[in-house]
Every structure is written in structure tokens, then in C-alpha cells.
Design brief:
CATH topology: 60s Ribosomal Protein L30, Chain: A
Structural class: alpha+beta
CATH architecture: 2-Layer Sandwich
Radius of gyration: 13 Å
Shape: globular
CATH class: Alpha Beta
Number of domains: 1
Strand order of the largest sheet: 1-2-3-6-4-5
Distance between the termini: 16 Å
Length: about 120
């Protein structure tokens, strides 16, 4: 099932906010301000989509973070870790890129399972 979620930013290209396949929830990368502001906005957008797909932060298995400036890595980590329950951090990949859609500096996507 493909989801377009009201309350989440509308896609800027031809894709869904998430795809639910069985118990798996694949959430499209979200982006949006400064590195800290973008990270907070991205995490909020991810939460909106997770909830619409029947999941939450406790059920996130893996995240991918894309950064246009790796010198901002710790700034992003500080905001990112606040969204997860204590001791419940998923596996993660962080990738340096030369650019992101919409001129964003931070993009995060994730894989979760349904509650």
C-alpha cells in the first residue's frame, strides 16, 4: 500500500510518503532551515508518516541520513537522537552528498515495522 499523508510536506517528485508491505514500513526521505532546524523538521515529518503507516520510533529498524556538509555531523546527531526512546537507536548509515532535492542540506529516510 502506498501512502500520501496529509500533514506531511507534499512530494516534490513522483513518489509516495511511504510504502507499507506486510509489517514493513518504508518511509521516503524527508527534508527541510539550518542543519539543526532541517533535522528537527525532517524528524517531525517522519513521525507524521510513521504514525499514518501504523508505526512509531520504537519500531524503526534502520535510518539513512544524507548530509551536504559532514562538518555538521554532530549538530545533526544531537537533534536526531532526541526522537528515539532511550537506549533504542536503530541501525544507521550516514552519507555525504554533493546536493539534495529542493536545495535541502539534510535528508533522512527509514525502514520500520508496524506496531
Amino acid at each position: 500500500m502506498h501512502l500520501l499523508v496529509s500533514g506531511a510536506p507534499q512530494p516534490i517528485a513522483p513518489f509516495s510518503h511511504a510504502t507499507v508491505a506486510g509489517d514493513f514500513v518504508f518511509v521516503t526521505g524527508q527534508m527541510r532551515g539550518s542543519f539543526a532546524e532541517q533535522t528537527a523538521a525532517v524528524m517531525k515529518n517522519l513521525q507524521i508518516v510513521l504514525e499514518a503507516a501504523g508505526s512509531d520510533w520504537e519500531h524503526v529498524l534502520h535510518c539513512r541520513i544524507y548530509l551536504t556538509d559532514f562538518s555538521r555531523y554532530e549538530e545533526v546527531n544531537t537533534v536526531y537522537q532526541r526522537w528515539f526512546p532511550s537506549g533504542r537507536l536503530p541501525a544507521r548509515t550516514c552519507i555525504g552528498v554533493t546536493g539534495l532535492a529542493g536545495g535541502a542540506d539534510v535528508e533522512i529516510d527509514l525502514l520500520a515495522v508496524k506496531r
